[in-house]
């Protein structure tokens, strides 16, 4: 059973629709391995995604975030140059890569450096969600 059907659970589970959407989104992502990426834990609450985007300029890349979903797209502008390759090992195709973000993850910035797109993320937990010490009287 490769793609489970969660629809029967929708009838009796109230308030879990976001969880089911996460599961379905994870099942439907078939990006293959392009472009390759790394997810780095910088420190306890900071992360960095590095995506190999050789051949793409800043104008050809698009980063959007919506409902804890980070979408990175790359689309070449214009017609590809006619070349006669003896061997073509560098991919030049367009891509769309999706990352599901956890609660309280905020995107701090992005920069393109030496063919790598870096996206910096930070987990900012609200004070009401942090553990607090209870004084004993």
UniProtKB/TrEMBL annotation:
Q: Which stretches make up the SHSP domain?
A: 28-137
Q: Which UniProt keywords apply?
A: Chaperone, Cytoplasm, Stress response
Which residues fall in a coiled-coil region?
none
User: Could you name the Gene Ontology cellular component terms for this entry?
Assistant: cytoplasm
Which biological process annotations from GO are given for this protein?
protein stabilization
Show the HAMAP family listed in the entry. Answer: HSP20_IbpA
Subunit structure, as described in the record: Monomer. Forms homomultimers of about 100-150 subunits at optimal growth temperatures. Conformation changes to monomers at high temperatures or high ionic concentrations.
Q: What is stated as this protein's family in its record?
A: Belongs to the small heat shock protein (HSP20) family.
Physiological role: Associates with aggregated proteins, together with IbpB, to stabilize and protect them from irreversible denaturation and extensive proteolysis during heat shock and oxidative stress. Aggregated proteins bound to the IbpAB complex are more efficiently refolded and reactivated by the ATP-dependent chaperone systems ClpB and DnaK/DnaJ/GrpE. Its activity is ATP-independent.
The protein's name: Small heat shock protein IbpA
The organism encoding this protein is: Brenneria corticis
Chain's gene name: ibpA
């Amino acid at each position: 059973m490769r793609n489970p059907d969660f629809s029967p659970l929708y009838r009796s589970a109230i308030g879990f629709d976001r969880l089911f959407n996460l599961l379905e989104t994870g099942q439907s992502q078939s990006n293959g391995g392009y472009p390759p990426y790394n997810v780095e834990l910088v420190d306890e609450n900071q992360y960095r995604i590095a995506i190999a985007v050789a051949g793409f300029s800043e104008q050809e890349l698009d980063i959007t975030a919506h409902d804890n979903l980070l979408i990175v797209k790359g689309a070449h502008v214009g017609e590809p140059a006619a070349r006669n390759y003896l061997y073509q090992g560098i991919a030049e195709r367009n891509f769309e890569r999706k990352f599901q973000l956890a609660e309280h993850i905020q995107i701090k910035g992005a920069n393109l450096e030496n063919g790598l797109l870096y996206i910096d993320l930070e987990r900012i937990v609200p004070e009401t969600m942090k553990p607090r010490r209870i004084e004993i009287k």
